[in-house]
Amino acid sequence: MIGKPRILVVEDESGIADTIQYVLATDGFTPVWCSTAEQALQEFRQAAPALVILDVGLPDLNGFEVFKRLQDLPGGRDLPMLFLTARSDEIDRVVGLELGADDYIAKPFSPRELVARVRVILRRSQRPPQAPAPAAAPPVFNVDDERRRIRYYGQPLELSRYEYGILRLLVQKPGRVYTRDELLSRVWDDDSDSFDRTVDAHIKTLRAKLKAVAPRLEPIRTLRGAGYALSEDLPAQ
C-alpha cells in the first residue's frame, strides 16, 4: 500500500502551522512541521518529502535562500515547492516564481485553497513527461522552382528541361491522370515538333532516374489508354 504523501511545512508561526497541519492531515497527507530553516534542512536530508510549503519570513534564514539550499540537496532540484508569506508585494511573488517555485500563496489564506493548490502541484509534478512529437517526415518529392531542381527522398535529380516539367506537373497533384496530349501542351513550348512517343521516351528516362534512388518503387503509374499519374501511396522516407 502506498503511504500518504509527506508534506514538509516550514512555518515559524505555530498557529498557522497547526492549521496547515490539520487540513493536510484531514485531506490524506502526512504533514511534517519545522519552525526554522535549519530544522527544515535537517528534515529534508533525512527523507525528501513529496512537497514543501515554505514560509518566506523565517526567523533564521530568508525563505528564498532556504529554497536555493533545498534545491542543492539530493532530490531537491525537482521537488515541488509552494511559497507562503504574509507579504503582498508583487516583487516577492515574482522572485519566488522566477527561482522556480511551483506556486505562491499570501497570508491570510483559505486552508482549503492551500490544500487544493497542493493537490494541483502534486498532480502536475507526478504526470509523466510527454514524449516529444515525432519530427515530420520529409516530403517524398521536394520541388525548388527557383533552381528548377527536384529532390526525391532527399536526393537531387539530374533532370532535363522536359523531365523536370513532367515530374513537376505530376508532383503537384498525385493520383491525377495526365494524358500525353496534356503533357505535351503543358510541358513542351511547341507541340509541332513533339509527338506522343516523345512523352513516352521522357517518362522512360525519368523512371530510370527515380529508380536509381529508390529501386523498389514505381512512383509513376501508366494507365493504359489514359496517360500517366504519380502514385499517391509512396512510403515516407
Description of the molecule:
The protein is an alpha/beta fold and 237 residues long. It has 2 domains: 6-126, Rossmann fold, CATH 3.40.50.2300; 141-230, Winged helix-like DNA-binding domain superfamily/Winged helix DNA-binding domain (Arc Repressor Mutant, subunit A). The chain is built from 8 helices and 10 strands. The strands form 3 sheets. A 5-stranded parallel β-sheet has the order 2-1-3-4-5, with helices on both faces. α4 (90-99) links the parallel β4 (81-85) and β5 (103-106). The two termini are 48 Å apart. The mean pLDDT is 86.
Structural shape:
rod-shaped
CATH topology of the largest domain: Rossmann fold
SSE succession: EHEHEHEHEHEEEHHHEE
In angstroms, what is the radius of gyration? 35 Å
